[in-house]
Amino acid sequence: MNAYKYTMQLDEDRLPMLVKEKAYYRVDRRCCFDDAQKIWELSQTIGLDKMAEEYMYCVCMDTKLRVIGLFEVSHGTVFYSLASPREIFQKALMLGAVYITLIHNHPSGDPAPSPEDIGLTRSVFDAGEVLGITLIDHVVVGYNCYCSLRSEGREPFTKR
Fold first, then answer.
1. What span, in angstroms and rounded, lies between the C-alpha atoms of 112 and 97?
2. d(CA 140, CA 146)
């Protein structure tokens, strides 16, 4: 199974269309992406740990946590990138995603989540609850390491 990268484009009538770009990443369709280690391995396939600026991706999954699509959510600077729940869920809804995971890199190599990372995670988590799309995790990638907000019990993945 291939995971395809999608972009949004508007046609003449200003209606959004999904455009499937070339299949970049080979993903085992039988693989369940239910833990941070597997998401980190996918991020290495993308080359996220080697990028000089911040990039954020959204991994869209079906009911069995199998990857059905991968989106670049944002591309920023060496210090930050801007992301919005609106753009994340617009694409996830068009794919029919049931679960999503966010992955982004820190070009500094330190995967410790910033307060902004935690705030965005909270916003996406809350929006997902309303839309019926569960945010499984937010994985921050550094050099040969990663931080899973879910595994660390960080907001918003703490027990309520």
1. 28
2. 6
Please give the model's pTM, rounded to 2 decimal places. 0.82
Residue 94 corresponds to which tokens in the numbers above?
A: 């068009």
Question: What are the chain's domains?
Answer: 30-148 (3.40.140.10)
Token pair in block for residue 91? 């694409």
Angle at alpha carbon of residue 93, lines to 82 and 70, rounded to 5°: 60
pLDDT in single tens digits along all 160 residues of the chain? 677 777 765 555 544 444 555 545 556 666 778 889 999 988 888 888 889 999 999 999 999 998 888 888 898 887 777 889 998 999 899 888 999 999 999 999 999 999 999 999 999 999 999 999 999 999 999 999 999 999 999 989 986 5
Strand order in the sheet with 145-148: 16-26, 2-10, 67-75, 55-61, 99-105, 134-142, 145-148
Angle of helix 115-131 relative to helix 85-95, nearest 10 degrees, comes to 40
Give pairs for 73-79: CB < 8 Å, separation 24+. 73/102, 73/104, 77/53, 78/52, 78/53, 78/54, 78/107, 79/54
